[in-house]
C-alpha cells in the first residue's frame, strides 16, 4: 500500500469516527450549557458558561439508585445468559441432538420478534409466579432475548474449534466436562466476552421491560429514570443530557476495558 493511499484511508477513517462520535460529544457538552445557550443560534461547540448544576440536580434526585438498579439488572441478565448459552451452544456444536435444526431455526425466529410481541405473554407468566415488581422480571426478559443470540454466535465459534484439542485433553486424563472447562472455555474466551458484553449493553439500554414489569419506581433503571425526568423537567435539556451522560459512561468504560477481547472475538470467526 502506497503512503498516499494509507494517508487517505486514515483521513477517511478519522472523519467517519468523528462523525459517529459527534452526537456523544454534543450530548456531553449540552449537559454543561445553560438553558438559553442550548437554543442559541448559531449553536456553540463549547459552553460559554460552563456549569455543573445539571449534574448536581440529578445526583440530588437519587440517580445512584437508578444506576445501581441498572447495574443489578444488567449484571444478573448477563450472568444468566452466559450460564445458559455457553453449554447450550457447545452441545449444539458437538452433539447430534434430535431436532437440532429446528432449535436453531427457533433461535433465529426469536431474533426477528420485537420486544413488544413478548410483553403480554411474559407479563402473564411473571404475574403467575409473583415476579412482578422485582429485578427478576427485567432480568429474565432480557435473558430471554439474549440467550438465543449468544447461542447462535457461540455455536459457530465452537464448530470451528478442532476436536483434536478435546481428544488431547482426554488422553491426558480429562473427562468431557473437565476438557470443556479447562480447554474449550479458555480458547473461546474472546467470543464469550463479546456475547457477555452485547448482553450487558442490551440489558443496560432496556426500557420497555423495566417499566412494564416494575411499577415500583425504586426498581427502575437509568433508562426509565431518564423517561421519568422528561415529564418532570419538561424542556430542561441540560438536565436530561446530564442524565444521559451518566447512563452512557459505564458502557464507554466497559468497551474501553474490553476492546481487545471484543475486537478479537468479533473477527475470530473470519479467520477460522
Automatic annotation (TrEMBL):
**Transmembrane among keywords:** yes
How is this protein situated with respect to the membrane? Multi-pass membrane protein
- All residue ranges annotated as the ABC transmembrane type-1 domain in the record: 67-258
Entries under InterPro entries matching the protein: BP-dep_ABC_trans_perm, MetI-like, MetI-like_sf
TM spans (from-to)? 7-28, 71-92, 104-126, 138-158, 179-204, 240-258
State the source organism's domain of life: Bacteria
Task: State the Pfam families in the record.
Answer: BPD_transp_1 (PF00528)
Q: Where in the cell is it found?
A: Cell membrane
Q: Which UniProt keywords apply?
A: Cell membrane, Membrane, Sugar transport, Transmembrane, Transmembrane helix, Transport
Chief site of localization: membrane
Family named by the database record: Belongs to the binding-protein-dependent transport system permease family. MalFG subfamily.
Q: What is this protein called?
A: Carbohydrate ABC transporter permease
Amino acid at each position: 500500500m502506497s503512503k498516499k493511499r494509507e494517508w487517505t484511508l486514515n483521513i477517511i477513517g478519522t472523519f467517519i469516527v468523528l462523525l459517529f462520535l459527534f452526537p456523544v460529544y454534543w450530548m456531553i457538552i449540552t449537559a454543561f450549557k445553560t438553558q438559553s445557550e442550548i437554543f442559541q443560534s448559531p449553536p456553540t461547540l463549547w459552553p460559554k458558561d460552563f456549569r455543573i448544576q445539571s449534574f448536581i440536580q440529578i445526583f440530588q434526585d437519587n440517580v445512584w439508585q437508578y444506576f445501581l438498579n441498572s447495574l443489578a439488572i444488567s449484571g444478573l441478565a448477563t450472568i444468566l445468559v452466559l450460564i445458559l448459552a455457553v453449554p447450550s451452544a457447545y452441545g449444539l456444536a458437538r452433539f447430534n441432538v434430535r431436532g437440532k435444526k429446528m432449535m436453531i431455526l427457533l433461535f433465529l425466529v426469536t431474533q426477528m420478534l420485537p420486544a413488544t410481541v413478548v410483553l403480554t405473554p411474559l407479563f402473564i407468566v411473571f404475574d403467575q409466579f409473583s415476579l412482578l415488581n422485582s429485578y427478576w422480571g427485567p432480568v429474565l426478559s432480557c435473558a430471554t432475548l439474549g440467550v438465543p443470540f449468544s447461542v447462535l454466535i457461540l455455536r459457530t465459534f465452537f464448530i470451528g474449534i478442532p476436536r483434536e484439542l478435546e481428544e488431547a485433553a482426554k488422553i491426558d486424563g480429562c473427562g468431557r466436562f473437565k476438557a470443556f472447562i479447562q480447554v474449550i472455555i479458555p480458547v473461546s474466551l474472546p467470543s464469550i466476552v463479546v456475547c457477555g458484553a452485547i448482553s450487558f449493553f442490551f440489558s443496560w439500554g432496556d426500557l420497555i421491560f423495566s417499566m412494564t414489569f416494575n411499577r415500583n419506581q425504586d426498581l427502575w433503571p437509568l433508562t426509565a429514570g431518564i423517561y421519568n425526568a422528561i415529564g418532570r423537567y419538561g424542556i430542561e435539556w441540560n438536565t436530561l443530557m446530564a442524565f444521559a451522560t451518566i447512563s452512557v459512561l459505564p458502557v464507554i468504560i466497559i468497551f474501553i476495558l474490553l476492546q481487545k477481547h471484543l475486537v478479537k472475538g468479533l473477527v475470530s470467526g473470519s479467520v477460522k
